Every structure is written in C-alpha cells, then in structure tokens.
C-alpha cells in the first residue's frame, strides 16, 4: 500500500477502471430496459384502473348522468389549503349537479380526499372517502357509511359542517376526531367553492 | 449452518425457522411494525417482499462472478430496485386494492434490509437454485412473522379476522393494538415467545 500514490486528502487515490465500471453499467442498462418494458406493458392497464376508480366513484355519488364528467372537469388548486375538482353531471343538456372531489391536508396523517354529489340546488348526495392515510381501524372508519351518511341531504344553509366538539352538527367517529374534522372540512370547502363557481 | 453442506431442505428450514428474519434476526422491523395492522396487509406485504427476494436472489446469484467486489452493494441495489419497481407497477395494474392498502410500503421494499442482507450473505456466494430457495424461505419467514402480528393486532384492535367480524361488536376493541404502540407490544411478546421456544428446543 505504501507504494501507491497518496491523494491530497491522505486517502489512497480511488481506482476507477473500466473493468469495474463496465459490469455495473451493463446491469443498469438491462435494468432500465426491463423497467421500460414493464412500464409500457402496464401503463395502459394502470390508466384504466385509475379511470375505472373515478368512474365508479362518480356513478356512486351522482347516479344517472349521461355525459362524460371527467372530460368537462374544472380544477382548482388552492395550495396548502387543498384541491378541488368539479365534475359537471348532465342528463341530456340538463345540468343535474356536480360531483365534487375535495382534498384537504388536515387529516391525522395528511391528505384526505372525498368525493360527493351536489344537486343543482346545492344539496349534498352520497359521500365517498376517496383517498386517505388515516390509522387503519380507527381514522379509516370515517370512510364507513355510518359516518358519511350524516352528510346526505345536507346543505350549507341547513347544516354546520363542524364536529359537535367544535360546535357543529357532525357526529365524529369515536377516537378519530381529527379524521372526522378533516372529512367535514373537505365537504364544506367544496360546497363553499361550488357556490362561487356556479353562483347560486 | 455454515459448516454443514447446504441442501435445499436445510436452507429452507434455516430461512423459515432457524434464522427467521423477523423473529430471530430482527431484520425489516420498519415494515413489520407499520404494515401489520391487519392480516390482509401483512400477507400482501409479505408476499410482495417474497417475490422480490426470490427474483433478486436469483439474478444476484447469476451475476455473482460478474459483479466486482468493490461495487457489489450498488450493483445489488440496482437489481433490487428494478424488481421492486416492477412489482409496484404490476400490483397497481392487476391488484389495485392491495396496491392501495400497502401504498408507500411497496417502494420501500428497496431499502428492506432483509433483501440486501440475503443478497450479501447468501445469493452473492451461493448457486442459483439454493439462492432461490433461500429467497423463498426467508420471504415466507418474513411473511409468517408479519402474519402473526397482523392477526393478533387485527383481532384485538378491530375485532376482525381477515376482514371478517369474529368478536361481537359489543366486545371492547383495544384501540391501542392498531396504533404503533400496539405494534411494539405485540412484536416484543412474539419475539419473547420465539426465544422461549428456541431455548426449550436447545435444552431438550
């Protein structure tokens, strides 16, 4: 070792020879090729899975439309406050209402997204918890019908979208006040914004 | 293990029981604690990791004479990351429900130390077939450890077994079992039980 040239830092100079680099290069090359293949083989299916997920949710919260709500969606990104997407549901040329996808970041573990139907006169239909990272078996119970059904037929005029602890009318899931709060907030924010967009 | 001649049977028993990665070697604790909230998640995570383990063990064993000693860790990681990404894409395309439930923990299989550990300790030094058996056995060992935790936590914390209600709704649910603290408590008691069984086996 003492015969080796010493680097300025006192460390032996790193040896980089093509003999060492070549195998790694080849492995990386084949990995990249393999990933490109798998990606192109699954991309279409993954797109369909996502599309089906959205369409199933739309059909659940706003049944009976015959247009393509996903084609006419209106997106509103509100930074740290959340994200809103409005899907207009139409039958013939008649606007039935909107499916609202509302995301907030105030869940117990961050993002909580709900989707729900709103009729043209501002009354909430069915609500579905779309995405969340809440504690399984605890906060995740905010996704069960027992909790979500209380929003049905509610509207901004007739309902206070806060949990009872905060002076509202929402029955929180036992032991999951934060998750319940996040869902209630997501519903309320979508309704408030829809009012601005549609102006009724 | 190292002195005796390795056979498929001895390698399999070693991975599943003697050196069970979860309960004996205490490897891969992060996914073990985080994903064992329900039995279904435990099985999904365990089998995904098993698949990656078998594939990466086979490829690393095939390449073991080609990968230079000094750069073996980056080489292993590239192979492992490739298979993890493939598994992630395949799960998303064909098992969207499991993919949704496991979320971030699938990409994190890349840094699961069981997989790199087996590449380093076994697949880098042993022939292909034995490495495949080792991957399968270690994967099943990991899955069984996860499954024990998942079942205990799900039954006590949520009153369900693989999603089916087994304790009546009036039976009090021990919510702490679902929370991280419950994961540590269950893991500690399970390891204690494994140690007790092991010591009795040795003394017998």
Summarize it.
The complex is a heterodimer of chains A (200) and B (204). Chain A contains three helices and five strands, in the order H-E-E-E-E-E-H-H.
Tell me what you see in this structure.
The complex is a heterodimer of chains A (200) and B (204). Chain A contains three helices and five strands. With 200 residues, chain A is α+β, with helices and mostly antiparallel strands. Chain A has a domain at 60-198. Chain A has a five-stranded antiparallel sheet with strand order 1-2-3-4-5. Chain B has 204 residues and is mostly helical. Chain B has one domain (8-203). Chain B starts with 7 loop residues before the first helix and ends with a helix. Chain B is built from eight helices and two strands. At the A-B interface, helix 1 of A face helix 4 and helix 7 of B.
Number of domains of chain B: 1
Q: What is the strand tally of chain B?
A: 2
| Contiguous uncertain segments of 5+ residues of chain B | none
User: What is the overall number of helices of chain A?
Assistant: 3
Q: What is the share of helical residues of chain B?
A: 55-70%
**Strand ordering within the main sheet of chain A:** 1-2-3-4-5
Radius of gyration of chain B: 18 Å
Percent in helix of chain A: 25-40%
Report how far apart the termini of chain A are: 82 Å
End-to-end CA span of chain B? 20 Å
User: C-alpha Rg of chain A, in Å?
Assistant: 26 Å
Order of helices and strands of chain B: HHHHHHHEEH
Largest sheet of chain B: 2 strands, antiparallel
Total helices of chain B: the number is 8
The ordered H/E elements of chain A are: HEEEEEHH
The assembly state of the depicted protein chains is heterodimer
Give the strand content of chain A.
Answer: 15-25%
Structural class of chain A comes to alpha+beta
């Amino acid at each position: 070792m003492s015969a080796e040239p010493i680097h300025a830092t006192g460390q032996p100079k790193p040896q980089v020879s093509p003999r060492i680099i070549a195998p790694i290069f080849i492995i990386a090359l084949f990995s990249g090729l393999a990933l490109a293949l798998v990606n192109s083989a699954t991309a279409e299916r993954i797109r369909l899975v996502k599309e089906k997920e959205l369409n199933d949710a739309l059909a659940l919260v706003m049944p009976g439309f015959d247009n393509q709500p996903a084609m006419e969606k209106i997106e509103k990104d509100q930074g740290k406050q959340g994200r809103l997407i409005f899907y207009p549901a139409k039958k013939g040329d008649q606007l039935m209402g909107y499916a609202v996808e509302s995301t907030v970041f105030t869940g117990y573990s961050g993002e909580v997204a709900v989707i729900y139907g709103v009729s043209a006169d501002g009354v909430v239909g069915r609500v579905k918890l779309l995405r969340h990272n809440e504690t399984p078996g605890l906060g995740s119970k905010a996704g069960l019908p027992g909790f979500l059904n209380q929003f049905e037929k509610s509207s901004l005029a007739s309902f206070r979208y806060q949990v009872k602890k905060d002076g509202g009318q929402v029955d929180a899931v036992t032991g999951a006040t934060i998750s319940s709060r996040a869902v209630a907030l997501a519903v309320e924010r979508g309704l408030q914004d829809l009012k601005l967009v549609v102006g009724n | 293990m190292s002195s005796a001649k390795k056979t498929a049977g001895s390698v399999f028993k070693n991975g599943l029981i003697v050196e069970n990665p979860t309960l004996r070697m205490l490897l891969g604790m992060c996914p073990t604690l985080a994903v064992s909230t329900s039995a279904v998640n435990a099985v999904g995570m365990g089998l995904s990791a098993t698949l990656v383990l078998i594939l990466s063990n086979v490829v690393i064993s095939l390449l073991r004479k080609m990968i230079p000693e000094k750069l073996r860790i980056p080489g292993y990681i590239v192979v492992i990351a490739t298979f993890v990404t493939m598994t992630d894409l395949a799960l998303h395309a064909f098992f969207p429900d499991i993919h949704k439930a496991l979320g971030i923990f699938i990409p994190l299989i890349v840094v699961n130390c069981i997989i790199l550990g087996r590449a380093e300790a076994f697949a880098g030094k042993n022939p292909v077939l034995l490495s495949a058996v080792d991957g399968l056995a270690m994967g099943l060992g990991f899955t069984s450890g996860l499954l024990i935790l998942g079942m205990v936590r799900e039954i006590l914390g949520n009153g369900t077994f693989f999603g089916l209600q087994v304790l009546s709704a009036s039976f009090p649910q021990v919510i702490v079992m679902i929370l991280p603290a419950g994961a540590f408590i269950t893991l500690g008691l399970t390891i204690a039980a494994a140690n007790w069984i092991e010591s009795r086996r040795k003394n017998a």
